[in-house]
Design goal:
Chain A is α/β, with parallel strands linked by helices. Chain A has helices spanning about 5-20, 35-40, 55-65, 85-100, 110-125, 140-155, 160-165, 180-185, 210-220, 245-255, 290-295, 310-315, 345-380, 405-425, 450-465, and strands spanning about 75, 135, 170-175, 195-200, 225-230, 255-260, 285-290, 300-305, 385, 395-400, 430-435, 435-445. The first copy, chain A, has a domain at about 100-345: Type I PLP-dependent aspartate aminotransferase-like (Major domain) (Aspartate Aminotransferase, domain 2, 3-Layer(aba) Sandwich). A 7-stranded mixed beta sheet of chain A has the order 2-8-7-6-5-3-4, with helices on both faces. In chain A, strands 1-11-12-10-9 form a 5-stranded mixed beta sheet.
Chain lengths: ~475, ~475
């Protein structure tokens, strides 16, 4: 593709995206595609000869777009947000165009040093201790796996890497902790049998006394409490584990404390919400995802560690073909994580923070939180609805519960409501289970979500549930 | 950023990239930035208030671009290629703009089903057995880690996930295997002590008889040969391990065979080069990186497995909040790898294969291989130069060796040549160590590299080494 064709096609793609952003509400939020439908439209084999840009772009519009679930739709209330922003998309375009593979400093000094700087910015924005050092990971799954591995190595005095983890290292989570931690501890060789699932209280936050008891018991049995994962903003209900109390317990037992704030972390940028972060300054590692709620397109996960030397020692490998003259003076981020290859992800973070300014990001978070609170207010004034968890930040868990139905019937009815909401094409919400009870989740976090979109959910709910007597 | 501003800025970015592609040779290939230079130009803290698009873009040009090492420069002969293409960049733009997080089928059916289809296309293009199923990973580091984990689980009958890997599982590599395997086996809890490094022959390929002897010895000692990693196209010298012989040995011992063809795999698309793939049909898993030599911008790694059920069983976790009605009928790729979150990477692969056609990709590979052979020919006709390894595909390892210098002096002299080549700004090559000897590597694989760029390396070499007597 010569530069002029690229120019012409590029303008066309940009124009298409501008229209897409402007008219995104004409698409159903959740794709209506049926299993196998897209696959059947795609040829079984690759073309031998080149196809025209028109034909490729036409198929994109005809086959792919109807199969997309539109995460950037303002009616997105599902799972968690993955909000992007136009400026972040443009930065990603530059990253792709430059095509630099940023495995070591020499393979793009600007990428390494910008990463160092923007991670310092993020640390300041969140109020993290100055000694925390940051590195960009792809996802929180990967960042948490890094934490589990560093914890493993610290607990074994780096013999884990040599001899394997052994059978004595124990990891502690709450019953509300994200599944990626169980997955990560299995990957890291702890063994699922050494995962302790600590009960949560009525607020779905980890019970520190139960944690302490479990650690005591393991220690008495000759096991080694190696790592505790505390969550700030659980996936199901945005519950906040009491990090400060957990940190004291970890200190007593010499356990690594990893704090997973993948979703909620962005809210710490707002001073009046930052209270939930109390104790984080005592953590060994901390992760939050700018690709969730901070206008940065997927993927971009911000991982911070108190002692970067432990992280590097866990991962570093120095084959001859990767040695460079600059090694002693620079950060080679390949030793700060699992993958050798690294995309230039710092660029979009830099663009986003500068384009919105810290105040602009705060303003967005405040609006989302206000909308969630307003919605929760409407629910609590209608006796047929039940809030299923404390409303923290931007997430509301609820169900329809007129009071005369059994649990099973309630679950069935609410599943029906959820399906109707999502079939409307106007909004997309998802569900969870809280203490065994079915709950619908409304997560407010899309950049363009406004009051009218939350009102629409409420209006549809009224419609599907009948108006109050 | 309103749609019109996005449109205006987007056109500006596209135009900048079109110019960048056209005039990339005005930049030095390897950035001349000194350690800390970029960092010192970046403010210590984030701006509170928004900054203008002009100011952000201006800083990108002023601060970032001089700190970029230009992987897309036609004078790129370093490490390995990471060639992108305009059409791939445009596809990445759409992926970023759609901003879909493709963790499960429901969160974008088109992403899941396009991934299934393009991976079938790639399998056909490489001549892989029809029963191999594919999944896109970020990098070969991650894909190989998946292989090591699945091997671990198969060898322990899935008790590894529950009880930890134990201390008996052994992994076999050659002395030329990529460092990511050692890293991965440490992550997976095998323990570095259970890594056997099998010697390579004069062609730098693994010696199968040495592999067999090592496995015998381990078995006799009560250990379990769990996984062998064979490389097609080693990083240092593009050596080809004898997969067919290794496969028979693996079968005898019941060991998992993972084939790492991260770099060389693309060459299997060319029928006349495919011979090196003999035996791959007997492997358990196979990885190659379209983001290296197949015009697809980083990151995009193609991972294939013979038995996808083993892969899924290694990773699957099913929390309530991720369950969907479609689960029984679709592929949820979150269970096919480490990360939960997934970018829509299949789109760029689809665009690339269609835009170039299989023939177009073959043509590029043929040209690169021809250029490498031509360069090797020039070297072998000049008695002052020494080829340091057999020339496979697109990589040439060589050194200046007039015959009257000791090893140490030779290394020093060649380091000096390499530094001069790279300081020219016109080309970028890197080095390696082969059987303890310093070697300069010329890896041909950038999309726009032509004969004149390879000739320039040769001309510069003549200049730095003095003309032959």
């Amino acid at each position: 593709m010569d530069p002029n064709t690229f120019r012409r096609e590029g303008h066309r793609y940009i124009d298409w995206l501008a229209d897409y952003f402007e008219h995104i509400e004409k698409h159903p939020v959740r794709s209506a595609a049926r299993p196998g439908e897209i696959l059947s439209l795609l040829p079984a084999g690759p073309p031998d000869d080149p196809e025209s840009p028109d034909s490729i772009f036409g198929d994109f519009e005809r086959i792919i777009v109807p199969g997309i679930t539109h995460w950037q739709h303002p009616g997105w209330f599902a799972y968690f947000p993955a909000n992007n922003s136009p400026v972040s998309v443009l930065a990603e375009l530059l990253t792709a165009g430059l095509g630099a593979q940023c495995m070591v400093w020499q393979t793009s000094p600007a990428a390494a040093e910008l990463e160092e700087r923007v991670m310092q910015w993020l640390g300041k924005m969140l109020g993290l201790p100055a000694e925390f050092e940051g590195v960009i990971q792809d996802t929180a799954s990967t960042a948490s796996l890094c934490a589990l591995l560093t914890a493993r190595e610290r607990a074994t005095n780096f013999k884990g890497n040599l001899e394997g983890p052994g059978e004595k290292l124990v990891v502690y989570v709450s019953e509300e902790t994200h599944s990626s931690i169980e997955k990560g501890m299995k990957i890291a060789g702890y063994g699922r049998n050494n995962l302790r699932i600590i009960p949560a209280g009525d607020d779905f936050a980890m019970l520190p006394e139960a944690l302490e008891a479990a650690m005591e018991k393991d220690l008495a049995a000759g096991l080694i409490p190696a790592c505790v994962v505390a969550t700030l903003g659980t996936t199901s209900s945005m519950a906040m584990d009491p990090v400060e109390e957990i940190a004291s317990i970890c200190k007593r037992f010499g356990a690594w404390l990893h704090v997973d704030a993948a979703f909620a972390g962005t809210a710490a940028i707002v001073p009046e919400y930052r209270d939930f972060m109390r104790g984080v300054e005592q953590a060994d590692s901390f992760v939050f995802n700018p690709h969730k709620w901070m206008l940065t397109n997927f993927d971009c996960s911000a991982y911070f560690v108190r002692d970067a030397a432990l992280l590097r020692r866990t991962f570093e490998i120095q084959p001859e073909y990767l040695k460079t003259d600059a090694d002693s003076q620079v950060k080679n981020y390949r030793d700060w994580g699992i993958q050798l290859g690294r995309r230039f992800r710092a660029l979009k973070l830099w663009f986003v923070v500068r384009y919105y300014g810290v105040e602009g990001i705060r303003e967005m978070v405040r609006q989302h939180v206000a909308l969630a609170r307003e919605f929760a207010g409407w629910l609590s004034q209608d006796s047929r609805f039940e809030l299923m968890a404390p409303v923290n930040l931007s997430l509301v868990c609820f169900r329809y519960n007129p009071g005369n139905l059994q649990e099973e019937e309630l679950a069935k009815f609410n599943r029906g409501i959820l399906e109707k909401l999502n079939n409307s094409g106007k909004v997309f919400l998802t569900h969870t289970s809280l203490k065994g009870k079915y709950a619908i989740r409304l997560s407010v976090g899309q950049r363009t979500t406004g009051r009218k979109h939350v009102e629409l959910v409420w209006k549809l709910l009224q419609e599907y549930c009948g108006h109050p007597a």
